[in-house]
Queue: 2 jobs
Job 1
Amino acid sequence: MTHLAHNYHPLPVIIGAGEGAWVTDGEGTRYLDCLAAYSAVNFGHRNPQLTAVAHEQLDRVTLVSRAFENDALGPFADALAELCGTDMVLPMNTGAEAVETGIKVARAWGYRVKEVAAEQANIVVMSGNFHGRTTTIVSFSDDADARTDFGPFTPGFRTVPFGDIGALAASVDANTVAVLLEPIQGEAGVIVPPEGYLRAVRELCTAQNVLMIADEIQSGLGRTGTTFACDREGVAPDLYLLGKALGGGIVPVSAVVGSESVLGVLQPGEHGSTFGGNPLAAAVGHEVVRMLRTGEFQKRARVLGDILDARLADLVGAGIVAYRRVGLWAGIDIDPQLATGREVCERLAARRVLAKDTHDSTIRIAPPLVIEQADLEWAVDQLAAVLAELRA
Ligand SMILES: *Cc1c(COP(=O)(O)O)cnc(C)c1O
């Protein structure tokens, strides 16, 4: 019996150590991590380049608050802005805080720049979205578990079907300040919108003077084979929301990144965070940006992703109904006649592969991008074996 609240239902594995794509429990049993903390561990557990920077910063200074400047934050902001091809960074800690920040910035921009009448701003969001767990964010979720008994909710949001540009165009009006979307919906099961959709959203937002806000907290920073999922359609949003992998699997680091004409609307005292932009976070985040600049991780995601794709294709009809795969990221729909996603993940764990289900019969495969090809193929072998067990 532990004293933990019941807001999670973990698989029965107690991890004590990790290295690269592997984690180890107290008895020394090794498991292949095919979740990578929802992409927060894209660069692997205890990536040596990142832990070296963290150790060095731990021995200098770790937290001063934004009441004073610190010498790690400016260079991190410069590097991250450059990676995003824009000029301003607002550092926070968790993904949900980045989303909340994006919403506040969009509203302030709407009133101060677009000149929407006071209290009238609306933001269009997508069905099936996942943007975090705060009361405002669950206000525009359509997942009953995320919402039930947590109202009253924050007004000012309207939902349209993800991937439907006509529905989006119809819902935008003179008071719309932003369209907020995940370029690929991770929690929904790695849902990829139709080709050209992100470009159409970009064009619509530009034409209607509406901000395009891309929540790349899970899809960004290498996972899809490009630095950002928006890159796949050559689209630059007005605001990037980043988190997860930005902290290198070491500390929570999130950020909102955009142009000065948008992020510049905030004035001192209007927004902040005690921990946001702390020297340890900035040092680690800066190293993450340096690692992404080489393109090495994006390439690994592409190459290993193609291998994963070929292996999964063989399993369609053998217990898998369908799957979606982008970079090293797959949402796999298990035949619901055969098992739930949870049952498949339990059987995978018994075979030393850790993965996570989502929405009944879907499982996700998103290992650290440093995974070895042989280990990735071994993981698919285990999935094939589980499906064979279930079919027997
Ligand atoms: C995980 C996630 C969030 C929330 O991030 P937290 O750090 O858990 O608050 C927001 N958006 C997307 C797309 C995510 O995957």
Job 2
Amino acid sequence: MGRRERVYLSVEEIPKYWYNALADLPFQLDPPLNPQTKEIMKPEELSAIFPDPLVEQEVTTERFIKIPEEVLKEYAIFRPSPLIRATNLEEYLETPVKIYYKYEGVSPTGSHKTNTSIPQAYYNKISGIETLVTETGAGQWGSALSYAGLKFGLNIEVYMVKTSFEQKPMRKCLINLFGGKVTPSPSLETNFGKKILDIDKENPGSLGIAISEALEVVFSRNKAKYALGSVLNHVLLHQTIIGLEIKKQFEKINEKPDVIIGCHGGGSNLGGTILPFIPEKLSGKNIKFLACEPKSCPTLTEGEYRYDNGDTAGLTPLMKMYTLGKDFIPPKIHAGGLRYHGSAPIIAKLKHENMLEAVAFTQDETFEVANLFAKLEGIIPAPESSHAITGAIKEALKAKKNKEEKVIVFTLSGHGLLDLTAYS
Ligand SMILES: *Cc1c(COP(=O)(O)O)cnc(C)c1O
């Protein structure tokens, strides 16, 4: 058996700044449009749903954004996360390739989402907000926001996609454990939810519907704002803590990655992983960025690149992205976190500019890989994360065939200990 190589950083080595790729990307993002007027949105308009510091982070082109002390203190509870060499997997594949994974399952709720829920709660708190309303697909975002709300004294209300609510009751427990309130969506608590249920009582829900419900609630309340767990520029910004740590960890072992992989739902763990490597890529280094998504929700591989809403009701700004259409309801796959019709504008643009490649895998093949990985590496991956593992294995086998000595790194976005029903 191979030696277990783990690259740790000390708490003092947690990066003190997030990296803003907008400062370096060789293109401008197409601006978000007002969903009613189709005019370019002004930052002030975003202030209806987000607090000012986050609106500022959404549009700034400053290269490094200082992480507030209060946020660093909370990060230090679970960060830096380990970079682990998948020696057993390498041996199993009999490949000359080195495979590393950045393990985000060490967070309080078991996924990378606390990297952004903590700063989001912090910035809302200092802006005088009392309640955050959000949606959650598989429940990871809801539990991450609930945890952050607890840390900064905010009420958290979560609209959870009904299929996941039924399939993943433990996620609801987790949200409640941290003091958040959960409502299955579509619900009778909003006009939009009622309208959907009038048409189809059995509607399984979708992220788009849940976002619509959450926004309706925000617009009807005082001192309430909305929080989004993926897609937006400021979310990807917060997630760059992942890639920045990976860079430091690779420096420690004098290694550089050739292929960087993440699973893709809305683009936050992928963006957070790859964006800090944009300067290297732009300077001509041959680094491959790879997005892995489910065949049943093939946003980047089969979606259209155009303006679309982030939600079903059409309340969110129109954003230029790869989309399967805002009314797309993905099949009930276990990788609930990857059931989103759209993508982050930054990720979409990278794909469109051929700086990012994308592949799609079936549920069967990713579960086979997840089982193999659990047995070899001793970590049960979230069904979402197993898409990234599948991508890494395919890349490793390709390099083996071509006799290339590559270094592959992927982000293991979360553990699957609350997804064991999916495994069974
Ligand atoms: C939410 C989630 C995802 C997908 O979201 P992204 O924004 O694409 O990162 C992937 N993995 C896990 C474990 C998640 O919780």
